[in-house]
Design brief:
With 132 residues, the chain is an all-alpha fold. It has one domain (30-129). It has helices spanning 2-25, 36-44, 50-55, 61-76, 87-107, 112-119, 122-129. α4 runs antiparallel to α5 and α5 (87-107) packs antiparallel against α6. The longest helix has 24 residues, at 2-25.
């Protein structure tokens, strides 16, 4: 009886060691936590969008941090028009500017709100990246 229990435990431990790396791969930091659609809906749309509130200085520190996290997730997504020449580089440049500016707001850097307003140019980004 003891050998069966011991054998079962050994199998259980072996399965755990084999299966754990598969679960750890799901927590990959390079994968976006939010889709483009979710970020757009939560940060850029509405009567008083979060990005405008943060850029204007009317947001709490928690809201600024939340926006920064959303923009980091946005930057980890791929442009919907990534197959077009130069589009991947443009996406990286535009999203990097958003992330940098939002980080500046979180850190309390002077002029970061203005930089965020400038980087959050919806028309320029949509012209280059929104699917046709």
């Amino acid at each position: 009886m003891r050998t069966k229990i011991f054998g079962g435990l050994v199998c259980l431990v072996a399965v755990a060691f084999i299966g754990l790396p598969a679960f750890a791969a799901d927590d990959d930091d390079s994968k976006p936590k939010l889709t483009i659609k979710k970020v757009m809906g939560q940060a850029f749309k509405g009567k008083d969008p979060l990005v405008k509130k943060v850029a204007g200085g009317g947001a709490s520190a928690e809201e600024a941090k939340k926006l920064h996290e959303m923009l980091v997730a946005l930057s980890k997504n791929e442009s919907p028009r990534a197959d077009e020449e130069g589009n991947k580089e443009s996406w990286k440049k535009m999203t990097a500017a958003l992330v940098k500016a939002s980080k500046g707001v979180v850190d309390g850097d002077e002029g970061a709100g203005e930089a965020l307003s400038k980087a959050a140019n919806c028309a320029a980004c949509h012209k280059a990246h929104k699917p046709k």
